[in-house]
Amino acid sequence: MSVQLPRKRTILAWHRWLGIASALFLLSLSFTGLALNHTELLRLDQVIIRSSSILERYGMAGGSDISAYRIHTSEALVHLDGQLFYNKTPLATASKPLGIIEGDPISVVATSDALLYLAGNGELIESVPNSQLPYHTLTAVGHTNNTTPVLVTDAGAFTPDADWLAFETYQASYTVAALPLIKLDDAATEAVLEAFQGGGVSLYRVLLDLHSGRLFGWGGRTAMDLSAVAIIILITSGIGGWLRKSRRPKAPNSPPAR
């Protein structure tokens, strides 16, 4: 009996702590399950989430990642999470621009991995990767004294012809200045984010992923799995304890005192 009492206390303690640990997950499952069961009534698929912390879980960048540059006097060239936009119109997948060379009829956006040729209205004419250029990586964009653009690369400096079809080695002096950033107003920022994020994520999708633990990636799924195992242990151990107790012989009733 003296050995069984400490063992019983240990089992009860584990049972108690398992219940406490799984209670939070049970509440999450219960609330999200109730909500998902009434999707049409609550219109969960019509509520759009645009919180940056939530969107980052789905690989959607927030507004803090936006870099914007002036082009064509009053327009904006915007970079967001590996995407370039002309105002709010997607242009191409590219790294941040190192230089913008405006011309007529084309303007050139120079990035570390490609040259993008744009029409006067911002339409993408062509994207020329570095594999088709006389260098592997562009590191900077400079200008000669007569404002001719100079591409500074891992293979040396080059100047383009008037049509940006041929490139000549350049060995004279040039200057390099960082491409200045501009600040977008709130409306322009929202327009770019909406174009990038496709309108955000529905509340239904968020609750569904929260219900399964997928909202928090591998860790969330593992926590939900462990919670399910804990619940199984609680149920089976509780039923087992009740069965053992019900099978014990009942103590005879004591005779009434006289």
Main sheet strand line-up: 13-12-11-10-14
How far is it from the N-terminal to the C-terminal residue, by CA? Answer: 33 Å
Average pLDDT metric: 83
Structural class: alpha+beta
- Morphology call: elongated
Number of DSSP strand runs: 15
**Major sheet attributes:** 5 strands, antiparallel
Helical stretch tally? 6
**Series of H and E elements:** HHEHEEEEEEEEEEEEEHEHH
SSE layout:
Layout: H1 4-36, H2 39-42, E1 48-49, H3 52-57, E2 67-71, E3 75-80, E4 83-86, E5 89-93, E6 97-101, E7 107-111, E8 114-118, E9 124-129, E10 138-143, E11 149-153, E12 156-160, E13 167-170, E14 175-176, H4 186-197, E15 201-202, H5 203-212, H6 217-247
Antiparallel strand pairs: 1-15, 2-3, 3-4, 4-5, 6-7, 7-8, 8-9, 10-11, 10-14, 11-12, 12-13
Word description of this protein:
- By secondary structure, this protein is an alpha+beta fold.
- It has 2 domains: 16-55 and 200-239, no CATH class; 61-197, no CATH class.
- It has 6 helices and 15 strands.
- The protein has helices spanning 4-36, 39-42, 52-57, 186-197, 203-212, 217-247; strands at 48-49, 67-71, 75-80, 83-86, 89-93, 97-101, 107-111, 114-118, 124-129, 138-143, 149-153, 156-160, 167-170, 175-176, 201-202.
- Strands 13-12-11-10-14 form a 5-stranded antiparallel sheet, with no helix packed on it.
- Strand 11 (149-153) and strand 12 (156-160) form a beta hairpin.
- Helix 1 (4-36) packs antiparallel against helix 5 and helix 1 (4-36) packs across helix 6 (217-247).
- The longest helix has 33 residues, at 4-36.
- It is elongated and about 105 Å long.
- The mean pLDDT is 83.
